[in-house]
Amino acid sequence: MAASTGGLVSSFHGSWGTSMVGDDYHALMQSVPRYVTVGKPVRSAPCMKNVNEGKGIFAPVVVVTRNIVGKKRFNQLRGKAIALHSQVITEFCKSIGADGKQRQGLIRLAKKNGERLGFLA
């Protein structure tokens, strides 16, 4: 090894060609499948459950009310309440001169607070 050449030094003295020739190579190629079937990936259904389910001070009242009036009717009532609350926030933003971005921020904050308090249980 001469350090003055500055080249790459390797201990490899073989050939880059195949070391298998003739019948061995053909036997190996016959034993390997040409196509591999790949199944469709299994994907679980998205979970739309509230992470704060059962948490919050109002959660027990919300759960009991949902059980009494039924899930469908309860979701209708909840939707109306959320829509009314969004309208109140919108009117408030108009009265103080807040722009749309601030209004959206207040609506998101209301949703987070509702989750923490248990209204969305």
pLDDT average, as an integer?
80
The amount of beta strand, in percent, is: under 5%
Which bin fits the share of residues in helices?
40-55%
Task: Detail the poorly predicted runs.
Answer: none
Distance between the termini: 75 Å
Global outline: elongated
Helix segment count? Answer: 4
Helix/strand structural class: mainly alpha
Q: Please summarize the sheet with the most strands.
A: none
The sequence of SSEs as H and E is HHHH
How much is the radius of gyration in Å?
A: 34 Å
What is the count of β-strands?
A: 0
Would you kindly provide a written description of the structure presented here, covering whatever features stand out?
There is one protein chain. The protein has a domain of 60 residues. Helices cover 53% and strands 0% of the residues. The protein has four helices and no strands. One of its GO terms (biological process) is response to high light intensity. GO terms for molecular function: electron transfer activity.
